[in-house]
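<instruction>
Derive structure tokens from the sequence
<data>
Labelled lines for chain and fold
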Amino acid sequence: EGWGWECFYIGGSSGINAEYGEEEAMENAWQDIGDDKFFENAWRESIGMAANPDLAEITGNITQINDPKLQNSNFMKLMSKIHNGEVRFEGNTLIENEHEWADEYASFKGSIDDHRLKEYIFVARGEENPFDSIEDPLSKGIQLFNDGLISEAILALETEVNRHPENSKAWEYLGQAHAENDKDGQAITCLAKAVEVDPQNLSALATLAVSYTNDFHKERALEALEQWVERHPLYKDIPIPNLPQEDFAPNMAGSYADTWKRHATVSQRFLEAARMRPEDPDPEVQTILGLLYNLSYEYDKAVDCFKAALTKRPDDYLLWNKLGATLANSNRSEEALGAYFKALEGKPTYVRARANLGISYLALNMYPEAARNFLGALEMHPEAQHIWDNLMMVFRLLGRNDLVEKCQYRDISLFSNEEF
């Protein structure tokens, strides 16, 4: 699961951050802001923009946004370059280091930050884990996860991977738990470990692809999906198509064209997989196609794929969240509400769906409902900086500067008796 600046998360255990990658994220953010004058004014106020700010001021304000998912992104690096005068625009052209930054900004290939490649950082490090003494921490962790007790599930699963570091299933569930808790960095470490110890763990591979997408690593997401189809017993013989450039990236060159060629190639292989079961759609294939269509901005097709997957998995709360995020990204926020309700019906403690619901209410100018859902998400995940930022924006729109001030303390208990 956000997508975009507003953080519509498709993600969680299978997570498309609806941040479906940095490129779409930022493009959608500017479009959304520009479409609604009132929202635009609130945004200007929230980041301190003057009535007619220059580009340096705008980019300076953007670089101050305290969202860990953006801080190390190529988009944020570009904003910093513009703010510092290292690059500039002339019309629609980026001047100085033009080719380097144009390619980097367009493809968003990037590389995993060093902290993404380090060994897993245990939540209970230096502290006694209450599950250290139980006989079967894996079963307990899965039970807690299914019950929506994510923090407790993480501790139990940490006990399991400490005892049995080659247990791919335990690493996978631990990664899913972190993804549902909106911590894709930890999720990536765990899911990569699950695939490392068992390369045939296809569900971990698919989830890893979504977490990479959430974390703005489109190329690595595509690589994981390539591995998925090549290791699947039913689909591994699907050949790699030889696509001419005009079919996927006319008038493009360099790494941008390479990225879209890879995307087109991966998409074609999954379309072939879908054609193998026309009367009995494979929900995994349909879900992955939904992700791929989101990456190429083909939201109507993505909606169709998620709906096809839901015919096979009608109680899958993750799929309902994916559908909701896709509808929201295609400016269908009212329809998205119903999908998020279904997701939360399946798992009331699903933080990402709760936050996404708040964002859809915000897009519909239903500010009290948005605030209540952001507070509900923060009650479960009080460290989520981007949700606090969204809550502050809502309070500004409501004219409640007193509540904006309370947000600075990051203490959810301060809002227990508030009405808005």
Summary: The CA atoms of residues 106 and 256 lie 6 Å apart. Residues 1-53, 97-117 have pLDDT under 50 and may be disordered.
